[in-house]
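Appendix B, Record 12. Input sequence as logged:
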Amino acid sequence: MKWRNLLSLGLVGALALGSVGCKDNENLESKVKQTTPITRTINGEEYRFEGNKVSQLSSDEDNQARYGVISDAHGEVEKARAFAQKFKEMGVDGIILPGDMPSNETLRYGRRDSNPDKNEIKQVLEAVAETGLPVWVIPGNHERKSDYESALAEVTAKYENVIDMTQFRIYDGDDADFVSLPGYQTFRIPGRQFIPDDGYWAKQDFIRATGKLREGLDDSVVLIAHGAGKTETDRKAGPATVYSGNDVGDATTTEMMKANNIAFAVVGNIHEAGGFAATHDGKSIKPGEWATQFTANFGGLERWKHLDGQTYNGMAGVLTVKGDQAKFDMMYLK
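Logged structural output:
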């Protein structure tokens, strides 16, 4: 793979919308079966797994953490592996996967999947887990529940560094903390369905309840989500800007972040908006720019035409959190 260095490019939004869990009686909190604390060593650091929370027990002297982010892999296993290995060389603290690991050609194009979605989820996860780094993962709008749960069960049995954030929805880290919002906020619009019937739909009550997970966390909190909140960036370059120029972000997600002092969010979903970030009130944040609040879209691994007119062969990035500020940087495959 050929690489372009960390860049300060601003790109604009692609339409890959989605939602979370489609049955009213399904509650992700019911997945929390772990009651007895377990301690694991991952990449030389100690972590405790208890209930719906993972806590980092070891610490260092600085107040900075860096995480690689790979969203919307869509079955691009070798690209996922290339980015993951690059992140390991860079010495990041872990890797975040904000959903849409399979292609789900049935949902997207109405045709039979060329590679079963479960296989793609498993292959992408294994390619990233091979680094030995902590891997935080959620489903997006393309994962079916049966495929995601089955793949995660098999992968986590082999790789203890993979952390399923539908179960462990809180991460209390040394220098940064996470809460997860699995799935996607929009199930369908007229003429288009964004989530499979047995997928993950993040309904409004579920989104609002997610804010409560932030209680007791004492570092800057990052929301791990597939779809962005609304950032008031119509006709601008925002993390949920689509080809029409509209901001299709979710207002309830933004309200939840504001109400619970969740400063940052890492997302994907809108492919053509990869590399764009903005504050809740619509201020654009450029790659490499330190800020006290933003939502950043880390794009996807498929070849895609962006709103800047260029076609990219795959992108991912790095989130750096230091105290109450953060920045993001993008990496692109030639």
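The chain has six helices and 20 strands.
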